[in-house]
Amino acid sequence: MRKAVYAGTFDPITNGHLDIIERSLSLFDEIHVVIFYNPYKKTVFSLEERLEMIRQATSHLKGVVVDSSDDLAVEYARKIGASALVRGLRATQDYQYESQLAYTNQYLAEDIETVFLMTRLSQMFISSSSVKEIASHKGDVSALVPAYVNEKIVNKYGK
Questions:
Q1: Is 41 a residue of the active site?
Q2: What is the pLDDT of residues 39-53, one digit of tens each?
Q3: CA–CA separation, 97 vs 89, rounded Å?
Q4: From CA 16, how far away is CA 65, in angstroms rounded?
Q5: Is 129 tagged catalytic?
Protein backbone atom coordinates (compact mmCIF):
# COMPACT_ATOMS: atom_id res chain seq x y z
CA MET A 1 0.00 0.00 0.00
CA ARG A 2 1.39 3.39 -1.03
CA LYS A 3 0.95 5.94 1.78
CA ALA A 4 1.69 9.66 1.90
CA VAL A 5 1.43 12.43 4.46
CA TYR A 6 -0.14 15.81 3.72
CA ALA A 7 0.91 18.08 6.55
CA GLY A 8 -0.37 21.50 7.46
CA THR A 9 -2.01 23.78 9.95
CA PHE A 10 -5.33 23.72 8.08
CA ASP A 11 -6.67 26.79 9.89
CA PRO A 12 -9.13 26.29 8.21
CA ILE A 13 -9.02 23.66 5.48
CA THR A 14 -9.84 25.25 2.11
CA ASN A 15 -11.05 24.00 -1.26
CA GLY A 16 -7.42 24.30 -2.38
CA HIS A 17 -6.34 21.86 0.33
CA LEU A 18 -9.21 19.56 -0.57
CA ASP A 19 -8.18 19.58 -4.24
CA ILE A 20 -4.62 18.55 -3.30
CA ILE A 21 -5.99 15.73 -1.11
CA GLU A 22 -8.29 14.46 -3.88
CA ARG A 23 -5.55 14.56 -6.50
CA SER A 24 -3.09 12.86 -4.12
CA LEU A 25 -5.46 9.92 -3.90
CA SER A 26 -4.81 9.23 -7.59
CA LEU A 27 -1.12 8.76 -6.72
CA PHE A 28 -1.36 7.06 -3.33
CA ASP A 29 -3.67 4.49 -1.77
CA GLU A 30 -3.81 6.30 1.56
CA ILE A 31 -3.30 9.97 2.45
CA HIS A 32 -2.74 10.96 6.05
CA VAL A 33 -3.89 14.56 6.46
CA VAL A 34 -2.03 15.59 9.58
CA ILE A 35 -2.04 18.74 11.66
CA PHE A 36 1.43 19.11 13.11
CA TYR A 37 2.10 21.31 16.10
CA ASN A 38 3.77 24.54 15.01
CA PRO A 39 4.75 26.84 17.89
CA TYR A 40 5.22 29.76 15.47
CA LYS A 41 1.64 29.81 14.20
CA LYS A 42 -1.26 31.30 16.11
CA THR A 43 -4.47 29.60 15.06
CA VAL A 44 -8.06 30.84 15.07
CA PHE A 45 -9.61 27.39 15.34
CA SER A 46 -8.71 24.86 18.02
CA LEU A 47 -7.00 21.61 17.14
CA GLU A 48 -10.25 19.73 17.73
CA GLU A 49 -12.20 22.12 15.47
CA ARG A 50 -9.63 21.81 12.69
CA LEU A 51 -9.59 18.01 12.90
CA GLU A 52 -13.39 17.92 12.71
CA MET A 53 -13.44 20.31 9.74
CA ILE A 54 -10.95 18.09 7.88
CA ARG A 55 -12.96 14.96 8.74
CA GLN A 56 -16.15 16.54 7.45
CA ALA A 57 -14.47 17.90 4.31
CA THR A 58 -12.96 14.51 3.43
CA SER A 59 -15.78 12.23 4.59
CA HIS A 60 -16.69 11.41 0.97
CA LEU A 61 -13.18 10.19 0.16
CA LYS A 62 -11.84 6.66 0.65
CA GLY A 63 -8.25 6.38 1.81
CA VAL A 64 -8.03 9.54 3.91
CA VAL A 65 -6.80 9.34 7.51
CA VAL A 66 -7.07 12.51 9.62
CA ASP A 67 -4.64 12.91 12.51
CA SER A 68 -2.50 15.30 14.54
CA SER A 69 1.03 14.92 15.81
CA ASP A 70 3.87 16.58 17.69
CA ASP A 71 6.43 14.66 15.62
CA LEU A 72 8.37 15.97 12.68
CA ALA A 73 6.58 15.13 9.46
CA VAL A 74 9.28 12.67 8.36
CA GLU A 75 9.16 10.91 11.75
CA TYR A 76 5.39 10.58 11.46
CA ALA A 77 5.77 9.29 7.89
CA ARG A 78 8.21 6.61 9.04
CA LYS A 79 5.91 5.54 11.88
CA ILE A 80 3.01 4.88 9.50
CA GLY A 81 5.13 3.49 6.67
CA ALA A 82 4.59 6.40 4.27
CA SER A 83 7.01 6.90 1.40
CA ALA A 84 6.18 10.52 0.61
CA LEU A 85 5.15 13.92 1.86
CA VAL A 86 2.65 15.76 -0.34
CA ARG A 87 2.87 19.53 -0.68
CA GLY A 88 0.84 22.01 -2.71
CA LEU A 89 2.45 24.87 -4.62
CA ARG A 90 0.45 27.99 -5.48
CA ALA A 91 3.02 30.32 -6.95
CA THR A 92 6.68 31.30 -6.91
CA GLN A 93 6.52 32.65 -3.34
CA ASP A 94 5.52 29.14 -2.15
CA TYR A 95 8.42 27.57 -4.02
CA GLN A 96 11.16 29.15 -1.92
CA TYR A 97 9.58 28.10 1.38
CA GLU A 98 8.54 24.66 0.13
CA SER A 99 11.90 23.84 -1.44
CA GLN A 100 13.71 24.75 1.79
CA LEU A 101 11.30 22.52 3.70
CA ALA A 102 11.78 19.68 1.18
CA TYR A 103 15.57 19.89 1.42
CA THR A 104 15.37 19.89 5.22
CA ASN A 105 13.14 16.82 5.13
CA GLN A 106 15.51 15.18 2.63
CA TYR A 107 18.39 15.83 5.04
CA LEU A 108 16.40 14.24 7.87
CA ALA A 109 15.07 11.29 5.85
CA GLU A 110 16.50 10.57 2.41
CA ASP A 111 14.11 7.64 1.99
CA ILE A 112 10.99 9.84 2.13
CA GLU A 113 10.22 11.79 -1.05
CA THR A 114 8.46 15.13 -1.28
CA VAL A 115 5.82 15.28 -4.00
CA PHE A 116 4.69 18.72 -5.16
CA LEU A 117 1.31 19.24 -6.77
CA MET A 118 0.61 22.53 -8.49
CA THR A 119 -2.56 24.20 -7.33
CA ARG A 120 -5.22 24.56 -9.97
CA LEU A 121 -5.19 27.99 -11.57
CA SER A 122 -8.69 28.73 -10.28
CA GLN A 123 -7.50 28.20 -6.69
CA MET A 124 -4.09 29.88 -6.78
CA PHE A 125 -5.19 32.76 -4.59
CA ILE A 126 -6.87 30.66 -1.90
CA SER A 127 -5.05 30.36 1.41
CA SER A 128 -6.22 29.85 4.96
CA SER A 129 -4.86 33.30 5.74
CA SER A 130 -6.85 34.99 2.99
CA VAL A 131 -9.99 33.11 4.02
CA LYS A 132 -9.58 34.32 7.62
CA GLU A 133 -8.88 37.88 6.47
CA ILE A 134 -12.00 38.01 4.30
CA ALA A 135 -14.12 36.37 7.00
CA SER A 136 -12.87 38.76 9.69
CA HIS A 137 -14.37 41.59 7.62
CA LYS A 138 -17.66 39.67 7.25
CA GLY A 139 -16.92 38.76 3.63
CA ASP A 140 -18.38 35.71 1.94
CA VAL A 141 -15.91 32.81 1.75
CA SER A 142 -18.45 30.12 0.86
CA ALA A 143 -16.87 29.50 -2.56
CA LEU A 144 -13.41 29.07 -1.02
CA VAL A 145 -14.10 26.43 1.64
CA PRO A 146 -16.23 23.30 2.06
CA ALA A 147 -19.81 23.98 3.28
CA TYR A 148 -19.22 22.62 6.80
CA VAL A 149 -16.14 24.83 7.15
CA ASN A 150 -18.10 27.84 5.96
CA GLU A 151 -20.66 27.21 8.73
CA LYS A 152 -17.85 27.14 11.31
CA ILE A 153 -16.41 30.37 9.90
CA VAL A 154 -19.78 32.13 10.00
CA ASN A 155 -20.25 30.96 13.60
CA LYS A 156 -16.76 32.24 14.50
CA TYR A 157 -16.83 35.59 12.68
CA GLY A 158 -20.51 36.29 12.10
CA LYS A 159 -22.00 37.27 8.76
A1: yes
A2: 888 999 999 999 999
A3: 10
A4: 18
A5: no
